[in-house]
Every structure is written in C-alpha cells, then in structure tokens.
Amino acid sequence: MSLDKNRIFRIVIISILFMTIMLAGKWYYGRNMLEVTKIVLQQKEYISNVDIERDGDDTIIHVTLRDVDNLKEVYSQILDTIERQFKEKSFTLKIVNNPGKTIESLYNDQIQFIIYEAIQTGEYTQMKTRLDKINIDNVTDEIKVFIDNKNLYLQIKNDKYSLYDVIKRDS
Q1: pLDDT tens, 144-156?
Q2: What is the secondary structure of 14-37 as a DSSP string?
Q3: Which of 25, 87, 115, 163 is least surrounded by CB atoms within 10 angstroms?
Q4: Residue ranges per structural domain of the chain
Q5: Level-2 CATH architecture, domain 5-96
Q6: What confidence score (pLDDT) does residue 110 get?
Q7: pLDDT of the residue at 139
C-alpha cells in the first residue's frame, strides 16, 4: 500500500480549509451576536448605554440605566432580552452607576449594613422601616427596595444621581 503524496497534500489542505471556515464562522457568529444584543438593549427606553466585553468564554455586559421606577421589572426585562440573544451561553450583567458623593457615602456608611443584615436574618420589614427612616432623615429623593426569590433590588435617587444594585439572596 503506497501513499500518494498528492492525496495526502489534498487531505491536509481540505482539513486546513475546513478548520479555517469553522473558526471564521464561530468568530462571526459570536461577534454578530454581541452586536445584535447591544443594539437590542440600546433600543430600550430605560437604557442609556451598553458596553459588552469578552473575558475568555464569559461575556460581561455593562448597562447604564436612565431614571427607572422599578429596578426589579427593568432588571428582569434586561435579563430576558439577553437570555433570548445568548441562549445557553454564559454572561454577567453589571449595572453601571453614577451615585454621586452623597448617595455613595450614605450607602457605604449605613444602607449596605441594613441590607446585608436583613438578608442574613430575614427581617425585611425591619429593613424597610430603617430605610424609610434614612430616606426621611437624609437628602435623598427616594430609596426603594424590591425583593423576589433570588435577589434584592435597591435603588437610591438624589437629584441627577442614582444607585441601582442587585444583591443576591441566599434563599
């Protein structure tokens, strides 16, 4: 049985072409999927900016929100949109904030402790009461908290500044 050099050469060339086409298709599909996702998200009235970056196999989506009334609903709609685009691929959704110094210091000095204490103890009505008191005592326009079985959604607004935070609950 003799090996024909031309035959081996053709097999190698065809294999290289096939692999190149497959890799180019994967690259194009991935790039196209990211662009389509970005365009779809930017069409939402509650989103002001979207940045998408790749980190190995994971995709990180940074979303800047406009003024929203219900973070829980908006976050759920954003997740649904991304999941429809990404199907089974993994991604991380991050909300970009512009808290300003007042909200940032209020969150760091008081609110985060109340939130995490409530998550650990399960005393959400006490958390709500304490946050309402902070809202009255301080210069914030509003502090809202929404809860579902997976997350706690915090939104704080003051003038043109806002902080939106989605905190995982240990159910």
Answers
A1: 999 999 999 999 9
A2: HHHHHHHHHHHHHHHHHHHHHHHH
A3: 87
A4: 5-96, 100-168
A5: 2-Layer Sandwich (3.30)
A6: 94
A7: 72
